[in-house]
Here is the input.
Amino acid sequence: MNVSPFLTDIDFVSATVPTLMGTPPQQINLTVDISSGLLAAYAYDCVLCAGPASFDSSLSSTFKSSNIPWNLSTPSFSGTDVTDTVGFGGIFDVADQQFVSINDGNSDNYTSTIWNGLLGLFPNPLNAASASTHLLMRLYQSSSLLNPVIGMRFDPANPKLTIGALDPNDYEGTINWVEMTTSPDQNGDYYNTFNLDGVKGYNGEFVPFGGNLTAALSSLSCFRLIAGDFTVVSINIALPNADTYFFNPNFTGPVPKPNLEPQLGIYQYNCTPGSSAAAPQYPYVALSASINGVDYQIDSDNNLLRTGGYATPGNCPVGINNRSDTLTPNMVFGLPFLRSVYVAYRFPTDTCPGYYGFAFPSGSNRTQSQISQTPTSTPTNSAQCLSLIAPTSTPTANVVLVQEAMMSKETYSVYGRSGVGQVSLLGVDEMPNIVWNWTDAS
Here is the structure.
């Protein structure tokens, strides 16, 4: 997994995962979306699509196009339903995997949101037919995976995606498993919802947002695709009423009084070093998510507090905002949360629902008392659904990418550069041989 070294409000900072597409495979770093199941790649001739890589279907011998427009196409974001071989790392792949070839990304909304394409890692629980054809489900059904699970680290220290097993070296403490909502609100804008205790501030007390709270996870930078529409979700923590947190010093701690950026209404702190006796350095944003009895600290520096972006001079934007939508869930935990925790996702199979598992990333600045916290409860059917098989070996990747496959088997001298070593040429083996037909001019 590739992640940005820090968060900012104005650049593309979503995580990407190297995904192999086609035969021979082309490596495309697809943008990770953990709240939808859409698999898409920007076509080689895509109009105004963002990102440095795209999928060239003409180089794949297994590519098939249905010639049917993607049913969620819009005038500024459209594509075609296609199939091809898709996999990861040369270790496992799926033939004839359905995805969308995007041929028009002519919208400013997508340039900071999706680069190269989209890797949706959440099978839609409200659409059984769609879920059954999801890449993860097909890998599991073909016995390519030991377990129906993925592990994710979005933190810059050691970003990683494991598929089919969890690496115990990636986390510390007990994995805190929580069952996901089995029947999410069809009118809600997130389906990957789960129950949580709430969020806590500097004083360790719950910010009063009521009971029976739900949350969802979001990994995209700014926008998210739902039923063909993009709704704003930022790279923030979205709370029911952020004022309840910001204007109570018991929750914020000894930091400058927040103010609002006048045009966009973004919360910001004065962050000029030495500008306040109460905060001689950059302010510390104190916020923790409490899930099933375990408190997960959300890191402040370059995460909840950004030193650039949409802020007035001398101020730093804070990655906490109001969740204006009244639909479920109550809160949305974006990249600041994901970059502060280890997340496992046990996707639903047969009689087992979906589960999220949370732990502390190994190597993070967490105290032993934090790591040693234990969950309040254990999910129902955990013996059946969460008894994961531990791998006994690490698979070895063996990948020949299309760029390597197209290099000539022979090497050639470079004209005008005597003494320089011979080089391979790209695509020369595919060129037709020249047939010389000499005639006697006399």
The first strand starts at residue 16 and ends at 21. The two ends are 68 Å apart (CA to CA).
